[in-house]
RNA sequence: GGCGGGGUAGCCAAGUGGUAAGGCAGCGGUCUGCAAAACCGCUAUUCGCGGGUUCGAUUCCCGCCCCCGCCUCCA
């Protein structure tokens, strides 16, 4: 079965083949955050989808080069730094760091580069691109001194979004009387400085100002990855105008197809509405962690639904994630215990089966639900074999190997939490009470442990203490 | 109005022209001092609605309804 992804360009699944001659290198660009506040978990849904994509490509042997931009200059960051009374960089830095912390908490792999829009080399690249676009008649400087892209000279404009530009209906978000643009749809490449920008300004052949949002991605992507990318991702709300603009700018300069596969993630919803800063119905990762959930639980909750389907965020969903992870943890722990036993003649048969189904499901446009379905089926079968004593140490090791392989994609293995001394002591006391058949006392100790967040249970091999929820 | 995404059990969700994976929750059972975990069984004659094609449709075709998003700087 081949690897295939749904391409927004064609609105159809397409077999994936990288551009690189080696057939292995994959160049991937993913739109990153604007660092004017903390990212919300809807944003992270997109980053988790991209993480799943990268990890699965790597599992399949591809070498992924990924770039994610950090937008550290725009209207919101400028407004924010002025309100805070600090320089722009000082304002954006803590949010940038918080973003990286959040990525780590969600176990999202680091990209190879996180270029910032304000870096001099990138601003220089943006200016160079704008110059070329003007030379080619694809951009012009208007009376307000800003430079705009001339969409009517780029025939492909609207192709990605499948928009017929003549039929667009204004939602009121665009100001028709905005300066001297030739066409309402022309977007800013270079925004002329005005007083509201304060000290935020760069020199350019068109006067001082700052880059438009879209040009940032075009410049940084081509600088770091080259003129042609294999995959470019983002949320569906980026299709138009952002990605459309990126295509226009980049192809306007290079004359080559910018991106082969455009992949877009559906929104995270709250109460069946898009989670967004402007609606105010959002949770940051910090908000969710503050409720006692872990990054890995959020990872599972946001990753378990196919990326092109809307996902409604609920606390019930978080609890469900916790339970499901507990099931996985328990299974891994049982396999580990069994695997540690003396190797004996392998006599397992009923727990062996196809293990490729997981990866093949992901090959099919990252069908995570089917992949997880297979995982849980496997868990049930191997548990049954463990219960029945028909799964030996060698087989357990085999299943652990399989788990370790698919977990390079899932990144859901629980962290080993060492049991604190006071908890161990309570456990010991309970064991003593049980030996003495002092059931009431042992049950009280069990409750006490539960109140501290530890679960104790009795097995054939004695008591076992595990952290509830968590890690 | 244009362009998309979605509508499958109480909730989340996969899926196929041949009679509905999996997870969570719930109920009953095995195990346990009691639990927990694990396992076993039960929980959609039915896949938004109405037509059509077909031996047979949740799956294909036509029409409609509902939810969500984009339509010029939102992941």
UniProtKB/TrEMBL annotation:
Keyword Signal listed? The answer is no
User: Which cofactors does the annotated protein need, by name?
Assistant: Zn(2+)
Q: Motif ('HIGH' region) spans which residues?
A: 33-43
Concerning Pfam families, the annotation shows: CysS_C (PF23493), DALR_2 (PF09190), tRNA-synt_1e (PF01406)
Q: Where is the Cysteinyl-tRNA synthetase class Ia DALR domain?
A: 357-421
Q: Which GO terms describe its cellular component?
A: cytosol
Q: Which residues bind ATP?
A: 277
Q: How is the cofactor bound?
A: Binds 1 zinc ion per subunit.
Enzymatic reactions? tRNA(Cys) + L-cysteine + ATP = L-cysteinyl-tRNA(Cys) + AMP + diphosphate
InterPro entries from the UniProt entry: Cys-tRNA-ligase, Cys-tRNA-synt_Ia_DALR, Cys-tRNA/MSH_ligase, CysS_C, Rossmann-like_a/b/a_fold, tRNA-synt_1_cat_dom, tRNAsynth_Ia_anticodon-bd
Identify the residues that bind Zn(2+): 31, 217, 242, 246
The UniProt family comment states: Belongs to the class-I aminoacyl-tRNA synthetase family.
The UniProt entry, under Gene3D superfamilies, shows:
Cysteine-tRNA ligase, C-terminal anti-codon recognition domain, HUPs
Q: Where is this motif: 'KMSKS' region?
A: 274-278
Subunit details: Monomer.
User: Which superkingdom heads the taxonomic lineage of this protein's source?
Assistant: Bacteria
Q: What is its EC number?
A: 6.1.1.16
UniProt keyword terms in alphabetical order: Aminoacyl-tRNA synthetase, ATP-binding, Cytoplasm, Ligase, Metal-binding, Nucleotide-binding, Protein biosynthesis, Zinc
tRNA processing keyword on record: no
The UniProt entry's GO biological process terms, in alphabetical order, are:
cysteinyl-tRNA aminoacylation
Instruction: Give the location in the cell.
Output: Cytoplasm
Q: Which GO terms describe its molecular function?
A: ATP binding; cysteine-tRNA ligase activity; zinc ion binding
NCBIfam families, A to Z: cysS
- Record's protein name: Cysteine--tRNA ligase
């Amino acid at each position: 079965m081949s690897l295939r992804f749904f391409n927004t360009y064609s609105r159809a699944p397409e077999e994936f083949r990288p551009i690189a001659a080696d057939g292995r290198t994959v160049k991937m660009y993913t739109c990153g955050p604007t660092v004017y506040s903390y990212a919300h978990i809807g944003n992270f849904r997109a980053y988790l989808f991209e993480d799943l994509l990268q990890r699965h490509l790597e599992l399949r042997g591809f070498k992924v080069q990924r770039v994610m931009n950090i937008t550290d200059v725009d209207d919101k960051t400028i407004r924010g730094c002025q309100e805070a009374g600090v320089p722009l960089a000082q304002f954006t830095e803590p949010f940038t760091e918080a973003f990286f912390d959040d990525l780590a908490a969600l176990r999202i792999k680091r990209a190879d580069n996180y270029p910032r829009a304000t870096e001099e080399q990138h601003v220089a690249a943006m200016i160079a691109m704008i110059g070329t676009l003007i030379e080619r008649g694809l951009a012009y400087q208007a009376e307000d001194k800003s430079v705009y892209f001339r969409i009517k000279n780029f025939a492909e404009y609207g192709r990605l979004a499948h928009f017929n530009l003549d039929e667009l209906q204004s939602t009121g978000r665009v100001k028709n009387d905005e300066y001297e643009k030739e066409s309402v749809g022309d977007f800013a490449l270079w925004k002329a400085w005005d007083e509201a920008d304060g000290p935020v300004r760069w020199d350019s052949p068109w006067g001082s100002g700052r880059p438009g949002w879209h040009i940032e991605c075009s410049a940084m992507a081509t600088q770091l990855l080259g003129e042609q990318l294999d995959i470019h991702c983002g949320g569906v709300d980026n299709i138009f105008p952002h990605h459309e603009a990126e295509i226009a700018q980049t192809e306007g300069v290079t004359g080559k197809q910018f991106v082969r596969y455009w992949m877009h993630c559906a929104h995270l919803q709250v109460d069946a509405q898009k989670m967004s800063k402007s609606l105010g119905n959002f949770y940051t990762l910090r908000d969710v962690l503050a409720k006692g959930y872990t990054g890995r639980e959020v990872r599972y909750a946001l990753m378990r639904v196919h990326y092109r389907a809307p996902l409604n965020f609920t606390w019930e969903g978080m609890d469900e994630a916790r339970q499901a992870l507990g099931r996985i943890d328990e299974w891994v722990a049982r396999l580990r215990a069994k695997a540690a036993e003396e190797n004996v003649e392998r006599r397992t048969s009923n727990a062996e089966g196809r293990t490729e189904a997981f990866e093949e499901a992901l090959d099919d446009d990252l069908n995570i639900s089917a992949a997880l379905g297979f995982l849980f089926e496997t868990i049930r079968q191997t548990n049954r074999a463990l219960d029945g004593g028909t799964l030996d140490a060698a087989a357990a090791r085999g299943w652990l190997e399989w788990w370790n392989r698919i977990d390079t994609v899932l990144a859901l293995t629980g962290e080993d939490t060492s049991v604190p001394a006071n908890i161990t002591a309570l456990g010991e006391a309970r064991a003593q009470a049980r030996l003495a058949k002092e059931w009431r006392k042992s049950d009280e100790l069990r409750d006490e442990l539960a109140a501290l967040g530890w679960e104790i249970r009795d097995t054939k091999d004695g008591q076992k203490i595990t952290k509830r929820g968590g890690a």
